[in-house]
């Protein structure tokens, strides 16, 4: 992932911002007695996760899904797969596994939310074949998609089928540096029960809004292939513990790296910390006598 990449991460202040003032009120509406946590990488390809798979692994997804409980499914951004492919993915994975597919680029980047009803229906018709393993769909807008097109966002959010969980990522800084626009956006997401994705990337500290809009925290974490990646995750564990104590219902945390082969290492570290500090019992990847080394 090249988004927010920097050459000198040691010069960045990675301090997590304080929660947005309205995040606490959102959490009070949830007050869940238990928190579901899903942690995973963005891809399962052997070429991207070099060194993660033991020799002789025949099916990458089958192995991956028995190490992590979720995947951020970015492949669906580039093409709309047929229902049969989603069914195959469903059949290969354990009962507790969840997919978090990205909406197709025709919706977000080509048509930019305008006249997308048919393509959304086409996409969802295939994606629903994941059945209960469909975690949450997510929409990622182009970095040049600005608030001047806010009406497109309103129409899209209000027409989105409410039975389908959705999270949204905005990358243009004007969605957040204008308080009135930000508040209008957050209100829209809240009213439509849509999650506000938090992106933690070295070069884009300007979009760290720390504003939850429902009982799901959807975090896309981009490491810098630097020692600070781990201390940054420690800070996230502290924040997630606070949200857990406040009653958050679900945490979806996906780890990216500019050099993706290190993503499983970071994800494994995060899982270990969540088990220790949040009382979770998530499986430790490769903790089965087949520990591999990422080269």
TrEMBL record:
<dbReference type="InterPro" id="IPR002763">
    <property type="entry name" value="DUF72"/>
</dbReference>
<dbReference type="Pfam" id="PF01904">
    <property type="entry name" value="DUF72"/>
</dbReference>
<protein>
    <submittedName>
        <fullName>DUF72 domain-containing protein</fullName>
    </submittedName>
</protein>
<dbReference type="InterPro" id="IPR036520">
    <property type="entry name" value="UPF0759_sf"/>
</dbReference>
């Amino acid at each position: 992932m090249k988004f927010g990449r920097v050459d000198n991460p040691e010069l960045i202040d990675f301090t997590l911002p304080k929660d947005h003032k309205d995040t606490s009120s959102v959490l009070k509406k949830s007050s869940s007695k238990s928190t579901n946590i899903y942690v995973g990488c963005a891809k399962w390809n052997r070429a991207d996760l070099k060194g993660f798979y033991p020799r002789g692994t025949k099916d990458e997804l089958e192995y991956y899904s028995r190490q992590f409980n979720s995947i951020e499914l970015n492949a669906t951004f580039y093409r709309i797969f047929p229902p049969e492919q989603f069914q195959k993915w469903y059949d290969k994975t354990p009962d507790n596994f969840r997919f978090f597919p990205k909406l197709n680029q025709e919706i977000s980047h080509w048509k930019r939310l305008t006249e997308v009803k048919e393509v959304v229906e086409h996409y969802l018709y295939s994606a629903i074949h994941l059945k209960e393993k469909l975690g949450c769909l997510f929409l990622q807008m182009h970095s040049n998609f600005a608030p001047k097109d806010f009406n497109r966002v309103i129409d899209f959010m209000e027409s989105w089928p409410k039975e389908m969980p959705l999270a949204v990522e905005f990358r243009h800084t004007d969605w957040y540096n204008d308080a009135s626009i930000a508040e209008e956006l957050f209100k829209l997401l809240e009213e439509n029960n849509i999650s506000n994705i938090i992106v933690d990337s070295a070069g884009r500290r300007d979009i760290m809004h720390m504003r939850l809009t429902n009982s799901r925290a959807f975090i896309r974490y981009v490491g810098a292939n630097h020692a600070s990646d781990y201390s940054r995750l420690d800070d996230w564990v502290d924040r997630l513990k606070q949200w857990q104590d406040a009653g958050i219902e679900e945490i979806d945390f996906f780890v990216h790296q500019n050099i993706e082969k290190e993503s499983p290492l970071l994800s494994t570290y995060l899982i270990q910390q969540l088990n220790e500090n949040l009382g979770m019992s998530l499986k430790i990847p490769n903790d089965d006598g087949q520990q591999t080394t990422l080269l």
